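hi!! sorry for the late reply, been swamped w classes. u asked for the two structures so here they r. pasted raw, havent cleaned anything up. first the sequence of the first protein and right below it the tokens
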Amino acid sequence: MSDRDSTAVTKAAAALAEAARTGVPCPPVAPLLSAADTDAAYAVQRLNIRQGVAAGRRIVGRKIGLTSPAVQRQLGVDQPDFGALFADMAVAEGDVVPAGRLLQPKVEAEVALVLGSDLPHDQCTVVDVIRAADFALPALEIVDSRVRDWDITIADTIADNASSGLFVLGGQPVPLTGLNLRTVRMTMLRNGEAVSEGTGADCLGSPLNAAAWLASTLAGMGDPLRAGDLVLTGALGPMVTVTPGDAFEARISNLGSVRVAFEAEGENE
């Protein structure tokens, strides 16, 4: 990486970190990079992840984004992206997310996998994923963007840790034996009203396909998925914008349900 590119990566990382610290979204960082330069965007992501780890944060897994073909077309890409999950991003099922914790939250329902063994091969197959996964859980990913008004390109979202925010896991582990993740059906409710629907097939054909892509990609980068890692495999349906006071529940067939709520404005005043 040239000195000029290195400077751009440092500036972009600093802008995103400052937005996270202050709660004030920043302008898009893609103009500092090349809008199509995913390598530079991942360099920004890695820089802020390293700084997070140095500050005491613990990585517990990875998330996959851009698993919807429609969203890929919108951003002009032909593959998903990924980001890191930290322990401090976990929200207990049924808890209330405090007002102001996130900048511009949206919610999507996903299948989460927890690995019982490593996935070290850069040509990972679905069979490898099935053998490695200890169990699946229903999950809500609360995505967020440090970029003002979600005005993002692929470079922005990758640099911004794949627009990660928080995550919520259901409490009943389900083994993959006899479970067809391609055919699971999801309904997400906001305040009791259905606002997002989809199936496992809407996530790259199956959440297992998404996990195999992630495992292959990370192994090829020398940073493979390990036993104990949590993998959020990608949205099963459209994400939904959060309004303070909202309560969400995702119901995924054969996996169960998961819930989270958001504090209303002024609730603790």
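now the second protein. again sequence first, tokens right under
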Amino acid sequence: MNYPIVRFAPSPTGYLHIGGARTALFNWLFTRKHQGKFLLRIEDTDLERSEEKYIDQIISALDWLGLDHDGDYILQSNNLSSHQAALDQLLAQGKAYRCFYSKEELDQLRLAAEKAKKPFRVPTTYRDLSQEELNKHLQDKKEFTIRLKVPEGETRFEDLVFGNITVQNREIDDFILARSDGSPTYNFVVTIDDADMKITHVIRGDDHLANTPKQILIYEALSLPVPTFVHLPMILGSDGKRLSKRHAATNVQEYKEKGYQPKSIINYLSLLGWNPDSNEEIFSINEIIEQFELNQIQKKPAIFDEKKLNWVSGQHLQKSSIKELIEAIKDLDLTWAEHHSEDFVKKLLLLLRDRSKNIQDIIELGNIIMSNPSSYSQDELHNIFKGNNFEVIENFISGLEAEEFTQSNIEQLIDNISIQCELSLGAVMKQIRFAITTITYGPSLVEIIILLGQDTIISRLKKFVQHST
């Protein structure tokens, strides 16, 4: 565990997925806990789908989350010469071979095996060709792939999450290291790249678990040190199916745009598969680093629950300072509350902070409270004010004009109107809130009234009555 070196290796074929962010986080936490190195490798060898904009977005998302990588990021495409050198070495040592079966031929053999209800195995026809036979195929310019000669025996490894795993090598075909166009395959290049980067721990999703025996066989064929493997549980939606847009936003950028704080996302992602030795669920980043251990990662799939995320986010909002909130708001809306005093903004944020799940909630609800209503939902209007009876609002206006504008007087006025109009306290407050803000939810009504001030409240209420009658 001393000075581990890990890597996060996304493909620049799309935005940073929330699952990828969890993988990056666990790598980052492990190295920050043990004073290691967290390296970033961009696997850009899929030339048709890789785009520069996705590289920029991945790096931007990691920076926003605070997952700083050590040194410059590495492009996989810059390591092609090392990939080729390793291929040449395996061929020269007789540990790999050129296979001249075409895709069409293999498809036919596979179909025949299926019809015969037999398991399909790639024939080893070309595994041990003589030099003369090999030269003849090459002279005929017949296309070939390069396959690893899988040895007899078994491949064993200890995964720090899933424990000891043994795979019989006879269950593994001589798999392809390089395609017929010369391009190396995923399992081959990641093995060479990890070895070149001196990676000590490969921490990745458990969808890669089946790749691990093949990669170990490549390490062993090249006499390279085999890293420690750590496979993280899959993240599922609330219905137990693979996480997708029907469950929640799936890329980090969306959560940034929705106004979630990085510390909230980090806290929530850390709980997807990691089980700290406590009942606490709200952590600062430093607290997560201090407590994080690989042996606390669970095998069972993690369930992404947006309600839980919102709860975690809300807890962090409550702990955020006014300065932090203002800075976060300005990242999304530079003009928010620009015409209001610093004291007003502070009081408004104190009202909103404990009742919001993210910064966007604060912005939107704050805008509603600060704005002078210009229209009202007719459906809500008829539902709240039965028969267009505005007695509550008219009495409230009269009371505000007659009494000193204090919190206790306002509360007493609302109680009196409730008794006088024979309505529940909730119904009275709902009518007043709607008339002032056009909505029926939000922070304490009395605190909103005090914050906006007597003149503003009376003006809004009179405008409402005039508009609605």
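hope this helps!! also noticed smth abt the second:
The CA atoms of residues 241 and 289 lie 30 Å apart.
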